């Protein structure tokens, strides 16, 4: 009994720390999500604009991201994490390469608002993570080379070229949905149709 009483304050402290950590994680996520929404609409939006959209004070945003560059770097890292998770969900090692490639496009298409920021916001050009090859990049190139070796993808083009073609078609589909009010499922269908023709052997 005495042992339980002694440990109670420590347990309470750990529980409080856990709640604080969870609260901080939720606040950080709210800021990042708001930043994506705000910057998608206005690339010049300020940290104050992001704070208003997130429903927090500007000082709160500055506690998490002291400078605009810190926020952009956090968005970039978050996007890379999401791309990695999407790549894992696409199961690139399973089945024919063209089908795996289409699964990957389906996953990536849902990340359009975030990935467009990396293409469209000039400040991301100076982010150190933008040019680094990631495990997701390597997995895609491995898939493309497998398809070329198996004869299911165009072996007359470099795998890096096919990779760029896929990203270019995704970008076109995102713009089609965003700027021309094309239904998302239609834009995605156009993307996949063009991709099948572009990478066919």
TrEMBL record:
Residues 25-83 form the HTH tetR-type domain. Residues 46-65 bind DNA. The keyword DNA-binding applies. The lineage of its organism: Bacteria, Bacillati, Actinomycetota, Actinomycetes, Kitasatosporales. It comes from the Bacteria. InterPro entries: Homeodomain-like_sf, HTH-type_TetR-like_transc_reg, HTH_TetR, Tet_transcr_reg_TetR-rel_C_sf. Keywords: DNA-binding, Transcription, Transcription regulation. This is HTH tetR-type domain-containing protein. One of its GO terms (molecular function) is transcription cis-regulatory region binding. The keyword DNA-binding applies. Pfam families: TetR_N (PF00440). Residues 1-23 are annotated as: Disordered.
């Amino acid at each position: 009994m005495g042992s339980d009483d002694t440990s109670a304050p420590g347990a309470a402290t750990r529980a409080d720390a856990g709640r604080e950590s969870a609260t901080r994680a939720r606040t950080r996520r709210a800021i990042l999500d708001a930043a994506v929404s705000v910057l998608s609409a206005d690339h010049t939006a300020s940290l104050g604009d992001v704070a208003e959209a997130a429903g927090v004070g500007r000082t709160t945003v500055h506690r998490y991201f002291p400078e605009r560059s810190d926020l952009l770097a956090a968005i970039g890292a978050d996007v890379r994490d999401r791309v990695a998770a999407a790549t894992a969900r696409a199961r690139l090692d399973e089945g024919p390469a063209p089908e795996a490639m289409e699964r990957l496009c389906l996953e990536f298409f849902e990340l359009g608002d975030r990935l467009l920021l990396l293409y469209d916001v000039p400040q991301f050009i100076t982010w150190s993570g933008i040019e680094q090859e990631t495990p997701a990049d390597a997995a895609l190139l491995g898939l493309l080379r497998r398809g070329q070796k198996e004869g299911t993808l165009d072996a007359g083009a470099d795998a890096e070229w096919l990779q760029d073609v896929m990203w270019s078609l995704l970008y076109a589909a995102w713009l089609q949905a965003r700027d021309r009010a094309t239904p998302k499922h239609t834009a995605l269908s156009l993307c996949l149709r063009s991709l099948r023709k572009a990478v066919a052997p």
